[in-house]
TrEMBL record:
Residues reported to bind [2Fe-2S] cluster: C29
Matching CDD domains: GRX_PICOT_like
Record organism: Halothiobacillus neapolitanus (strain ATCC 23641 / DSM 15147 / CIP 104769 / NCIMB 8539 / c2) (Thiobacillus neapolitanus)
Keyword Metal-binding: yes
Chain ranges of the Glutaredoxin domain: 16-80
Family affiliation: Belongs to the glutaredoxin family. Monothiol subfamily.
Gene Ontology molecular function: 2 iron, 2 sulfur cluster binding; disulfide oxidoreductase activity; metal ion binding
Top-level lineage group: Bacteria
Keywords attached to this entry: 2Fe-2S, Iron, Iron-sulfur, Metal-binding, Redox-active center
Gene3D superfamilies tied to this protein: Glutaredoxin
Presence of the UniProt keyword Nucleotide-binding in the record: no
Stated name of the protein: Glutaredoxin
Length: 112
């Protein structure tokens, strides 16, 4: 499977997903750490991909949605942005309702 197809699968299978350096429990950079903390504070489950553990994804993710930096946050398959945008949305109270709605949609689809 092509790496962009693998990335696309991760994005489509997770209503809330962060591509980050490290893991939410053990982030490997400050930007990834702050972004994961904002997602954790929303108290909804989210997926993650440690780009440091997969060099192919690390090299090719910037091409997927033409976003050059890490972390990258996706909600309902759409790129939300990186650290700054995610934190701004969190501070404005926009992130939590967005990710809660995404998780509810997935839960509804699983029950159907």
């Amino acid at each position: 499977m092509d790496v962009l197809e693998r990335i696309d699968q991760f994005v489509k299978q997770n209503p809330v997903l962060i591509f980050m350096k490290g893991t939410p429990q053990f982030p490997s950079c400050g930007f990834s750490s702050r972004t994961a903390e904002a997602l954790k504070a929303c108290d909804v489950p989210f997926g993650y991909v440690n780009v440091l553990a997969d060099p192919e994804i690390f090299e090719n993710l910037p091409r997927y949605r033409d976003w050059p930096t890490f972390p990258q946050v996706y909600v309902n398959g759409e790129l939300i942005g990186g650290c700054d945008i995610t934190l701004e949305m969190f501070e404005r109270g926009e992130l939590q309702p967005l990710v809660e709605a995404a998780v509810k949609v997935q839960e509804g689809n699983q029950q159907a």
